[in-house]
Design goal:
This protein has about 280 residues and is an alpha+beta fold. About 20% of the residues lie in helices and about 40% in strands. The radius of gyration is 19 Å and the shape is globular.
């Protein structure tokens, strides 16, 4: 599938602000599952853009606006071609739990076995993970069991959490949005020493087009495999990946700071439609 994605973030300030420094993570990746055909990042007021790759190989655009301004618009337009991935069968048992030590020795997995800003591995999290995977002897089967558990036991309720909600609060409330579902799954997987990373991106469905978050787990011999606890599935061609990290803090679409009023209004919109071949 070929998708055209327009992601707009606009700020309106109660009074002009200045010395605005910003980082933007909105450029989709190109890999074996998707190809970025075109990308355009528009900033108003106009600003000079610089870009670099962070530690997790995400593309970050940086810009500064020194002069006073009352509004800020960040608009990213992407054309992405996605391909149907080769999914790992739900009944597969590709790697026993005895291979977790092998994954732990891999440099590519180290960061994704640790606690992070929004995800911890509390005794409660560990107990939940152990109870959920009792009787399982395979890494993939454990990861699937955790995904099934999160999907079945946490309610999807918009506006009950925010982008800075910690996973401990989500465990207590048992509700949230895709970001929270991903954080819970990350905590449960890491509590069992299963490497798990956070993925930010887009999901195009018949009902809505929106930003989305899911998880990838590392299976020795299979590599990183995507799982979406919000929709209880493996990601397909309607998923577009932007960035990966330990949790949301590493992949925030827009972050920054400025001098001036704290009274502001932020509006975010995402439009996704099938593009011509």
């Amino acid at each position: 599938m070929k998708w055209e994605i327009v992601h707009r973030t606009s700020y309106s300030y109660a009074s002009p602000v200045r010395e605005s420094f910003n980082e933007v993570r909105l450029k989709p990746v190109s890999n074996e599952h998707q190809t970025l055909d075109a990308f355009l990042l528009k900033i108003l007021p106009a600003a000079r853009l610089r870009h670099y790759e962070d530690f997790y190989a995400n593309c970050i655009h940086h810009f500064e606006i020194a002069e006073p301004h009352a509004t800020l618009l960040i608009q990213a337009t992407s054309i992405v071609t996605t391909r149907t991935p080769s999914l790992l069968p739900a009944e597969a048992t590709p790697a026993g739990l005895d291979r977790l030590a092998e994954a732990a020795r891999s440099e590519r997995c180290c960061d994704y076995l640790q606690a992070s800003r929004f995800v911890d591995m509390s005794p409660q999290m560990w107990r939940l993970a152990v109870d959920t995977t009792v009787g399982q002897a395979d890494i993939w089967q454990c990861a699937l069991a955790i995904m099934y558990f999160v999907h079945a036991n946490f309610r999807y309720e918009p506006n009950t959490t925010g982008v800075h909600t910690h996973v401990s609060d989500v465990l207590e409330r048992r509700c949230g949005v895709c970001q929270d579902f991903a954080h819970v799954m990350l905590g449960m997987c890491r509590s069992l020493k299963i490497p798990a990373l956070y993925v930010s991106g887009y999901l195009a469905t018949e009902k809505a087009s929106a930003t989305h978050a899911w998880v990838e787990v590392f299976i020795p011999g299979q590599g990183w495999r995507g799982l979406d606890p919000t929709h209880n599935c493996q990601p397909g061609e309607s998923y577009v990946k932007i960035a990966v990290g330990r949790d949301y803090a590493d992949v925030s679409p827009v972050s920054g700071h400025y001098k001036g009023t704290t009274e502001r209004r932020m509006e975010v919109s995402v439009e996704i439609k099938a593009a011509g071949s």
